[in-house]
Amino acid sequence: MQKSLRQNSPHRASILFALFATFASSLLAIPAAHAQPAESNVRERPAANRGGRPAEQAQPASEARSEVRPLPADRTTTHRVDINGKTTEFTGTAGTIRLNDLESGRPIADISYIAFQLAGADKRTRPVTFAFNGGPGYASGWLNLGALGPWRLRMDADAAFPTADPAPLDNNESWLEFTDLVFIDPAGTGYSRVIGGEDVRRRLWGVDGDISSLATTIRRWTEANGRSFSPKYIAGESYGGFRAPKIAHQLTTDQGVSVNGLVLISPVLDFRRFNARNSPLSLAAGLPSMAATALERKGTIERSSLKAVEDYARGPFITDLMRGLKDADALSRLTRNVSEFTGLDVDLVARRNGRITTSTFAAETARANGKIASLYDGAVLGLDPFPGSPRPEADDQMRLGLHAPITQAMVDMFHNRLGWNVENGRYFFINDQASRSWNWGNRQQEAVNDLSQSLALDPRLRVLIAHGLTDLVTPYFETQMVLDQMAQIGPAERLRFEVYPGGHMFYARDESRRRFRDAARAMMAAP
């Protein structure tokens, strides 16, 4: 979901989740020729069931792939699940949309998707939500199986290990109760694949080309399925939450597709302001999530429990950080307060001059017990294979512990539940090659401008932003600090900011998933 979000970003040195991301304090080149309107990269062609098998990463990047074996034809099946105590009938469609280069007409990508639509619903009034995860480099399995889709895989701490049962159950909190769902796998993830050489890969594995291809996919699906008049929503997690405002703005201003609302899940909205691990803003953003992690070990918490640390982080903490390393009184205050809020040993905090990153916290918070905290949820502990390391070097328990079960469940969903069998193809839940080679363009990437422009352009647009309290990859307080600097655009209730118990994938917790579902349903029901 989000591992690479910050790991490979010029702004983040650590991992992000993945989904997603992930989620460890990390986020992850588009040629100048692609800094043009997104649609210029794509030629209008019918939705594709042409194309070949997903490219394995071992294949040469320069290999031409315009003539390859086709993916299966789109396939629709009917299903029933129990949602919120009621039997729900729906169709599931697995398929692809082919994108073509505008100038040459050659195919550049086959984008795979799964669409769930309520049987017999009025398409003019029935909402449809387009969902994707982040990374960049992750398929949409996290949101599909974790929160929104009709089937749910256990993702709590007790199920976050590779041999956990990968068989999903009916999702009682599925959003299918109030919106149709289209899960999109960006180029190179899931069964989606890049067709062509290295130039095409560079185009699609970067901020601008990625936004262009996803916006075009949404428009093409909308037109092909008679949903132009439907209320339309975009849900993105982690780096997907960075994508969503940009995609919405491009859809409305360039591609002529209306967007009624955005759901941003554990997003990073501005990579520019938090581009150094030890910058005062970055340290202030992470402190409340570290404090939340320490408090949760004593019992269930809500955001109201963190008012003191939030007030400290945005005030005295920043002030003392700015006084520098030569101010003994400032260092003493930092050491005392940070130790108290995080539960870390005062001597350790003093050696770090009161400057504790989320990575340091993850490595140290349970070191005495031979364990290490997940950056995706600081409250989740795993065994530490390198207990002497000053930094977390273990595979993240929440992100990689769930990698195998989610991959197996998604393959089974495609092949067995939906009957869409890709022969000799591999499902890429995470494409590390895409993550490592992501093109950040001018490296001044932020989505706040797109979000503000969209809110101003359409007074009916609504936005829901949701975070987890113990997320150490995309801390909730970072988003709070960004939102505090945004102008008030229309009534305050248009933009709702929710913070729930849990980490980057807070929906892994039953109560948080229910509250998140209720907030999304309320947003879509609003006039």
- N-to-C series of helices and strands: HEEEEHEEEEHHEHEHHHHHEEHHHEHEH
Residue ranges: pLDDT <50 for 5 or more in a row?
A: 6-67
Total number of helices: 15
Helix content bin = 25-40%
**Average pLDDT for all residues:** 87
Oligomer: single chain
Number of strands: 14
How much of the sequence is in beta strands? 15-25%
Biggest sheet record: 10 strands, mixed
The SS-based structural class is alpha/beta
Task: Give structural attributes.
527 residues; alpha/beta; ten-stranded mixed sheet; two-stranded antiparallel ribbon; 14 strands; 32% helix; globular
Account of the protein in words:
Helix content is 32%, strand content 16%. Strands 1, 2, 3, 4, 7, 8, 9, 10, 13 and 14 form a 10-stranded mixed beta sheet that branches. The chain has a two-stranded antiparallel sheet with strand order 5-6. It is an alpha/beta fold and 527 residues long. The model is unreliable at 6-67 (pLDDT under 50). The two termini are 32 Å apart. Strand 2 and strand 3 form a beta hairpin. Helix 6 (280-296) packs antiparallel against helix 7 (307-322) and helix 6 crosses helix 14. It contains 15 helices and 14 strands.
How would you summarize this macromolecular structure in one to three sentences?
The protein is α/β, with parallel strands linked by helices. 32% of the residues lie in helices and 16% in strands.
Blueprint of the fold:
Blueprint: H1 4-7, E1 75-83, E2 86-100, E3 107-118, E4 128-132, H2 141-148, E5 151-152, E6 169-170, E7 180-184, E8 193-194, H3 198-204, H4 207-224, E9 232-237, H5 239-255, E10 261-265, H6 280-296, H7 307-322, H8 328-342, H9 346-351, H10 358-364, E11 371-373, E12 381-383, H11 403-417, H12 432-436, H13 448-457, E13 462-468, H14 476-484, E14 495-500, H15 510-525
Helix pairs in contact: 4-5, 5-13, 6-7, 6-14, 7-8
